[in-house]
Structures are given as structure tokens and as C-alpha cells.
Amino acid sequence: QVQVVESGGGLVKTGDSLRLDCAASGRTSSRFALGWFRQAPGKKREFVAAISWTGVSTYYSDSVKGRFTISRDNAQKMVYLQMNSLKPEDTAVYYCAATMSGSSYFTARQQFEYRYWGQGTQVTVSS
Fold first, then answer.
1. Confidence of residue 28 (pLDDT cuts 50, 70, 90)
2. Maximum distance among all Cα pairs of the chain, rounded to whole angstroms
3. CB-based contacts of 92: which residues, under 8 Å, 6+ apart?
4. Could you tell me if 126 and 11 are in contact, meaning their C-beta atoms sit under 8 angstroms apart?
5. How far is CA 98 from the centre of its chain?
6. Cα separation of 58 and 47, whole Å?
7. Sign of torsion, CA 25 26 30 35?
8. Residue 66 region by backbone torsions, left for phi larger than 0, else alpha for psi between -120 and 50, else beta
9. CA neighbours closer than 13 Å in the CB half-sphere of residue 101
10. 112 phi/psi in degrees, rounded to 5
11. Are 69 and 81 in contact (CB under 8 A)?
12. Does residue 126 surpass a pLDDT of 90?
């Protein structure tokens, strides 16, 4: 069992930056790929970014590419989402998710690929 807990959300203005943190605990001796998803009010949860076990591979949705950066620190059992140039349309609850994978290059981009989910952290971007 793996638990993931997000933190770092908040209220920011258009153009600001924010970093989300995700801490993994539990069976973290296993290797796993990680991802970030978000859900805006009245919309379905959508993929944001993913990173492989080693961090060699990353993948982003078109809506955040060039503005967001996903990274991880396996020694600290953390994954981060650095969000720059935030826009009001980035307003959402952001979720961290994990799935077992020992592949250096595998990134999971679909919700059904993830087994473990956090409770989410709210990000609000005002105009």
C-alpha cells in the first residue's frame, strides 16, 4: 500500500508561480511512476503531467506544456509540480497519483493506470 499526500495549493494571481508537493509513504520501497491530475469545477478530472520512476521521462498535457514542470526526489519520496505563468483556467483541485512501475521510461497518462490517489489540493488563480 502506498499513500500520497499533496500540499502547496493556494490562492495566487494570474502570472504567479506555485509549487505543489506530493509526499509518498507506505510501501515506498517499491518502484512507482507518478502523475498529477486536476479537476476544475463542473469538469472531469484531467491529466496534467507524469514522470517515470527514474525521472528520465516526463510527459505533459498540451495545456500546461512549457509552463509546468514535474520532478521527483526518490531519496525524499517526493514529487513536485512547479507551476509558472498561472492562468485562471488552471484553477482546479490538483491530485497526485502513483502506480507501481520499475521502468525507467514508463509514464502513465490515463487515470485508470493509477492505483493510489491523494485527496487533492486546491489551486485558485485569480484574474
1. low
2. 42
3. 38, 39, 40, 41, 43, 122, 123
4. yes
5. 9
6. 13
7. negative
8. left
9. 23
10. -70, -15
11. yes
12. yes
Nearest to 24 by CA among 13, 12, 32, 14: 32
Q: Is 75 exposed, middle or buried (0-12, 13-18, 19+ CB in 10 A)?
A: exposed
Q: Of 27-31, 39-43, 46-50, 102-106, where does mean pLDDT reach its minimum? A: 27-31
Task: Mention every residue, 6+ apart, whose C-beta is less than 8 A from residue 44.
Answer: none
Q: How many CB atoms lie within 10 A of CB 26?
A: 13
Cα distance between residue 84 and residue 50, in whole Å: 17
Give CA–CA dist 33/63, Å, rounded.
Answer: 21
Task: Please report the pLDDT score of residue 2 as a whole number.
Answer: 85
Match 491530475 to its residue by C-alpha cell. Answer: 37
